[in-house]
Please model this.
Amino acid sequence: MNSDYELITRFIKGEQSCFEDLIHRHKNKVFAYISLYIRDQALAEDIFQDTFLKVIQSVKSGRYYDNGKFISWVMRIAHNLIIDHFRRVKQMNTVSNDNYESDIFNSSKFADSTIEDDMIKRQIQKDIRKMITQLPDDQREVIILRHYAGLSFKEIADITDVSINTALGRMRYALINLRRIMDEKKISLTLS
Amino acid sequence: MMPMGLNSTQFISYHGIKVKNADLIEDAWGMNARFCDVIELLRYVKPVPEKKLTDKLIEKIRKNY
Model:
């Protein structure tokens, strides 16, 4: 399998399909990060597209220097776009992110399962998503970056501009809080 | 009498050690072991972009770049 760097190099030389390979390789991690952070599905989709478009612009203008961490760099771009969005919303003093109710799991496929199982699964997924959104922003971010984007603590620390110890501390508090919410709401994997 | 620990620790072969997505720092803090129930629950959610969204993005890139 070609490395990210090889694909970028070939894309710069004109092989369009190489960037498409990169999108297919990393789309799930990028989308998971954005869509769990932004509850408005349409907005999350816009930021998802903008992230890759910005990546292309940066790569084409020679602003990407490979250090073997392409996905970490992409996540930083997504992170900055999300921050920009919230800054704009704050300035405009418009509706809160919490007012949106959308189901980002519409695309999930549950093969070989009954309708009842699907409903239970969807309910559990909604509960988990709700649990995540109840966390403070800094804790929510570290949970998403580690468990859904698959970044290391070193990479998370770099993206969020904190020390590794701070990132770990946030993760610990996030997990403690999630367990507390799980206990309070009696959320568990009830499917057997 | 068996030396302490030898009959209580499960043997794991070298190939049985899972290192994919492992983070040594996280391991050192013992979070995976201590919060395995919470982490298991988090794994239950797997948001993925719809195919039409990815197709739309690729179409946009083909047109503009």
Confidence is low (pLDDT under 50) at residues 99-111 of chain A. DSSP finds eight helices and no strands in chain A. Helices of chain A lie at 4-12, 16-37, 41-60, 70-92, 115-133, 137-147, 153-160, 164-185. Residues 138 and 170 of chain A are 7 Å apart (CA to CA).
